[in-house]
Amino acid sequence: MIVKILKPSATFKGVRYNTNKVDKDKGELMKTANFGTLQALQNLRPKDYVIYLEAQSAASKRTKYPQLHAVISCKGRSHSKQELTAIAEQWLKGMGYGEQPYLLVFHKDTANNHIHIVSTRVDRDGKKINDSFEKIRAYEVLNRIVGVDEKQEIDKNIEKALSYGFSTRAQFMMLLEARGYSLKLSDGVYQISRYGKRQGTVSLEQVDAKISTFDKDIDRLAQLRAVFAKYRSQYDPAIVHVPAPLPGNRPSAPSGYTSAMAQMLSGKFGVQIIFHGKDGKPPYGYTVIDHSRKMVYKGKDLMPLAEFIRSSEDSPEISAKADRPEPTERERKSVSEEMAAYTDHAQETSEHWIPNIQIDIAHDIDDEAVHGRRRKRKSRTNTR
């Protein structure tokens, strides 16, 4: 679950943004609270809420940006509008806004259920609500509400990452970065952070020890090549940009790459394809994460990038022309073997550990409002 405190504002434009959603039947006003006698009136307009919030905020001349606009978003439909409303109420109390006037608006027009919160940072006595370490506290409060033990969670994710086979340090880092962590190597130890604070550590010695045991599964790679050859006529491997949508369907720069083939491999076989590129330029490489077998491979171990992303329309017979022998009977494995792989994948991912690096949780219209702009990672050397 994600909580995002949006950009500070001197006006309460968040009210109009959310009521517009309601007017277009893309949102639902779940609750208004602490608006005093205003709530006794009928047929309230958005302007009425804005005037009330502005009047209370005017009690503090020092607060330049009085609007609090936050979003709590779950993955997919895992939480209903009622559940998100209850979580938002508890979150407001935990952040010190329980007695403040606020609106809760549920948005239902995107792939992720999420709820918007609009309030004022100025209390009735003209004092500003404490915003020290606000972004860190926002997650601490949310995690406490939903029962997430941060220490237990990082320990579990480190253990999970170390259970994979990988051949480079960058590949290990990728597994945890995909879970939203950032890693920094210092004095032989990876410092692992999330929510703005350190969550845990793992020694470089542990990572290198795991690398030393890496054993490439040649048979599995051959099977994946056969799967690729079988499905390339149905799922185009040509890459497409993954946009980072902005509010109002405004265009934005691409944030990554995917393909119909990559999406099929992930959904059907638990094989995630991560393309490596920079600044909207064509990718220079890719990584294969086989979640069903807990293995990470350099893309070139499977096949050259140019071959993997070549459109089936450009080269409909590429599998026959490729510079490698025809798949053997063992490599083909047929439908029953593919379904066995799918079953493995379903069991392995029952805890939803498959990450998604270049695609946000959903292609939401107001995705940036919910998740914020992605920080551009510096490109590492091509050792993945």
From TrEMBL:
Origin superkingdom: Bacteria
Chain positions covered by the region annotation Disordered: 313-352, 364-384
InterPro entries: Endonuclease_MobA/VirD2
Basic and acidic residues composition bias: residue spans: 320-336
A Pfam family assignment: Relaxase
Domain MobA/VirD2-like nuclease: 17-145
UniProt biased composition (Basic residues): 372-384
The protein's name: Relaxase/Mobilisation nuclease domain-containing protein
Organism expressing this protein natively: Parapedobacter indicus
